[in-house]
Design a protein that fits this description.
By secondary structure, the protein is mainly alpha-helical. The protein has one domain (11-119). The protein is 63% helix and 3% strand. It has a two-stranded antiparallel sheet with strand order 1-2. A hairpin with a 6-residue loop joins strand 1 and strand 2 (39-40). Helix 4 (58-70) runs antiparallel to helix 5 (75-92) and helix 5 (75-92) runs antiparallel to helix 6 (97-104). The N and C termini lie far apart (35 Å). 30% of the residues are buried. This is DUF4112 domain-containing protein. It comes from Maritimibacter dapengensis. InterPro entries: DUF4112.
Amino acid sequence: MERSTALAPTPDAAHDLARVERVASWLDTRYVIPGTQVRFGLDSLIGLIPGVGDTAMLLPSLWIMAVAYKHGVPKRTIAQMGWNAGVDYVVGSIPLLGDLFDLFYKSHRKNAALLRDALGQRTPR
């Protein structure tokens, strides 16, 4: 049975969401390329390590999905998170093209937004 799309926020959910958003920021948008508006994070840097980087960055994605599951996020939303992580992993694994792709496809931020929407939280300003 599918759960409702917006869950009642709890203090525990708010705390976990804040942690997820903080980690997603570090992984996807922590730094900016000077003179541009292009943001990147540790995912882009660690993804430069052939064979290991993209696999290592799959672990935080799985953690975000586990947090979503813990808070009763609908399976459909968790599947979308899995899709985002899978696209990031598969395309990010392609030499050079994948590294460029990582600069623009922010899977962790997308998944944090999906979690925030599912938990009915407001976007922090």
